[in-house]
Amino acid sequence: MATPHINAEKGDFAPAVLMPGDPKRAERMANLLMPDAKVVSDVRGIKAFTGEVDGKPLSIMASGMGQPSLAIYVTELFTEFDVERVIRVGTCGGLSDVVKIGDVVIANGAHYEGVINTHLIPETHFSAVASHNLVQAAWEAAEGDPGVVVAPVISRDRFYDVPREVDEAAARVGTAGAEMEAGALYGLAARHGKQALAVLTVSDHLTVDSVDMTAEERETNFQKALKLAVAAALS
Ligand code: HPA
């Protein structure tokens, strides 16, 4: 049955969902991967697509920005639409010097700001970690590419007004990047007995002065992240 934010029927979603932040990117990904996909939901301009890749069912739907927005969609997908795994495909700001702009981070864990996971899982000192089988599938699909790293990120509830020393402190403990969704995604997967992963392209760098990617580089690096995310989704 339809939920407040997803006007689809049970059975309209594949067990695996790829989830970028941006609804326009979701549409581009769907056009690229499964041109015959059906639009199964369109509440608030967040279209969800379901089709097949290599004969396997797949859905694509955006999360919007930030942990609260992602949590609304992912909770409804896990509890009402029988979705078993969600793979976020997005960007992060680089933090540690193990990554440079254009690299892809397979986020094996997500430190997090905010209270979503404390509310979801109050009885333990919860660590937001990715599903190992999905990390492994994405890592194998990278085939030794030196521009792909497995490392934790930090999921913040703010984009602006983060002091540089806060970024540097996160980098010192091996945090590869900052983004705004993975922590809640991993918490929701744990809470509902499901699987989750985030595959993130480093779009800018927060502690190392560097030059932004060209449009062409962005596209190439996005394709790389997408390949790893699809491999994890269909594994
Ligand atoms: N913070 C900083 N830079 C970023 C982010 C973020 O959440 N996402 C992509 N670049």
From TrEMBL:
Catalytic activity: uridine + phosphate = alpha-D-ribose 1-phosphate + uracil
GO CC terms in record: cytosol
Enzyme class: transferase
Domain of life from the UniProt record: Bacteria
Gene3D superfamilies: Nucleoside phosphorylase domain
UniProt-listed Enzyme Commission number(s): 2.4.2.3
GO annotation, biological process: purine nucleoside catabolic process
Keyword Nucleotide-binding: no
Alphabetical keyword list: Glycosyltransferase, Transferase
GO molecular function, one term: uridine phosphorylase activity
Domain named Nucleoside phosphorylase: residues: 16-229
NCBIfam families hit by this protein: PRK05819.1
The protein's name in its UniProt record: Uridine phosphorylase
Name of the coding gene: deoD
